[in-house]
Design goal:
alpha+beta; Alpha-Beta Plaits; 83 residues; 2 strands; two-stranded antiparallel ribbon
Length: 83
C-alpha cells in the first residue's frame, strides 16, 4: 500500500530528500506522494524513511492504493530496472 501525506503536514521539508524512489514532491499546500513510485521503502530499507523522519506523524498508509508486500517488492523491481 502506498503512503500518503495528510493535511497535518507542516512542510518541514524532511521527507522529500529521504525518499529513495523520489515519490515525494511539493504539492499546492503540502507535500504529496506519487503512489506509482511509493514502495514504502521496500527494497531499500526496513521501514518507510519518510515516516521515520516526519515530526508530526502525518504519513499513514493510503487505503485508496492497497498493495501486498509482494506487490510492493515487484514495484521496487520495476522501478529499479529503469535506472
Amino acid at each position: 500500500m502506498a503512503l500518503k501525506i495528510t493535511g497535518e503536514c507542516i512542510n518541514c521539508d524532511v521527507c522529500e530528500p529521504v525518499c529513495p524512489n523520489n515519490a515525494i514532491f511539493p504539492g499546492e499546500s503540502i507535500y504529496m506522494i506519487d503512489p506509482d513510485l511509493c514502495t514504502e521503502c521496500v527494497g531499500h530499507f526496513d521501514a518507510p524513511q519518510c515516516v521515520q523522519v516526519c515530526p508530526v506523524d502525518c504519513i499513514p498508509k493510503d487505503p485508496e492504493h492497497p498493495e501486498t508486500p509482494e506487490q510492493l517488492a515487484e514495484k521496487y523491481r520495476r522501478l529499479t530496472e529503469q535506472e
